[in-house]
Specification:
Elements: E1 14-21, E2 24-31, E3 39-44, H1 57-68, E4 71-76, H2 92-109, E5 114-119, H3 121-132, E6 137-141, E7 158-162, H4 170-177, E8 185-187, H5 198-210
Parallel strand pairs: 3-4, 3-5, 5-6, 6-7, 7-8
Antiparallel strand pairs: 1-2, 2-4
Helix pairs in contact: 1-5, 2-3
Amino acid sequence: MFPTEVRPMHPSTLERLLIDGPAGKIEIDINDPGSSRRGIALIAHPDPVQGGTKDNKVVTTLAKPFFSLGYVAIRPNFRGVGASEGVHDSGHGETDDLLAVAGYAKRRFGELPVLLAGFSFGGFVQTRVAQRAAALRLVLVGPAVNRFPAQAVPRNTLVIHGEYDEVVPLAAVLDWARPQNLPVVVVPGCGHFFHGQLGVLSQIVLPWCRC
């Protein structure tokens, strides 16, 4: 039976390691639910030029409902961030990096369904990954569609955006979603970084992933 609320990721489930990537080593955090494993969730962080890392609070918040539902939650640092080697590549090399992480996860955990998630710049990169990888589902939070050329996405994609997003205006996301007939979940009164609204974010993601 699926959980009805988010359970915390105990420190004992966390593994930090370096894997081989196209531009050198990629630093990743893995939270593995063990015997309840039912999928792989690959979660991408916001723009490293603006200080984005795998430890961003929106990224770590996204990992929790996925982990609760039995997904191996994987949070990589993009190239040039933390211990990840290489230099920032405006989403091109970062796409290759995420594909490398997904390949590693499948080799290690088996051919489990893959769920892609990303926040801001990470959401843009995941739209590119989804064009090249077979993904079960796609979750985009505050996707930076006004700053980067985001790709069209599958119609079962979950898009979550703040009403008062000061970095990516809601109107820009609606303009991107409208030609795709893609619904957007709007969080009232919320800005780009979901200050004070992280619990709401989890409450949206958890039931959607249970379906």
